[in-house]
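Standup notes
- HV: blocked on the assembly model, inputs below
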Amino acid sequence: MKLLKPLLVLTGFLFCAAHAGAEELKVKFGYGSTEQHPQGVAAKLFADLVKTKSKGQIVVNTYSSGKLGSDPQMQSSLQGGTLEMMVGPTSNLVGLVQELGLFDLPFLFSSNKEADAVMDGATGKALAEKLEPHGLIGLAYWENGFRHVTNSKRHIKRPEDIHGLKIRVMQNPVFNDTFKALGANTVPLAFTELYTALDMKAVDAQENPLGLFESTKFYEVQKYITLSAHVYAPFIVLASKKWWDTLSDANRKIIREAALESAVAQRKLARDMAEQTEKRLKELGMEVTVMSPEERNRMREAVKPVFQKYAQTIGEDLVNQALADIRKANP
Ligand code: KDG
């Protein structure tokens, strides 16, 4: 018994010493949608995974609805090292890596399976690696989803119905040219400004996946939706390279693994939500139009010159590699 007390004191001392040096690592993680959107739910899942894997040593605090800035503003904060992590659309990164415009090519993907094949294959890896020289570490692709056109003016049953609509597009040349080719008046705007622009009728229309459409309550300021699925949009989980370079290999492994593991759940959440929202559109007060295959093909033909123009700037090798990934997804 005489030895018990000194042993307990020694054990307690050794435990404190072991953990005294390892200071808690705090990480700010920003995103643009609401906490209820699959982006927000997965951000929390990511934070929980990191906490578990690091035994509480890394604490990720998540910030929704653009609280840390618009997607482009958060990207700049990551490059400057004042923000550690974010998740946002690859479409806002084409000013840094024009090859990421691959994902913006209209009608490139026809299914989630095809999108997964490109995001998770050699093409997705090569594109993510191109971000590093720009101060960003691409860790995992999450899902925004297939994008559909909504507006406050009229049914869009055929491509000509888009003529003359003032449509908000992401600040991205492929989206701008795609809707100009359809005769729309394009208004590039950050997502954080979109609801107000629709509410004030500064723009008539927008295009986004169903999850964002519902979670950001666009149905309050839009009347018509056409399930055009004109492009698939990924999100990408990003880390600041300035911050990433300060991390140990062990902590980088924890964060990369958590980003990849949360991607699986996030994509499923996004797909389930899109399915549920599509069933609820009429309940949300929307007039729903499903374009006929013929009219959707006419829309595809009308924007083919945009596809061909940007396939050149993205590079034939990358486009062909992506097309090969897509073919493999449809054995
Ligand atoms: O969280 C949603 C934002 O990242 C948003 O920018 C993505 O689809 C988007 C858009 O249209 O801007």
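- HV (later): unblocked. Residues 31-33, 39, 71, 88-89, 144, 170, 191, 208, 212, 233 surround 2-keto-3-deoxygluconate (CB under 6 Å). The CA atoms of residues 169 and 175 lie 6 Å apart.
- Next: hand off to the docking folks.
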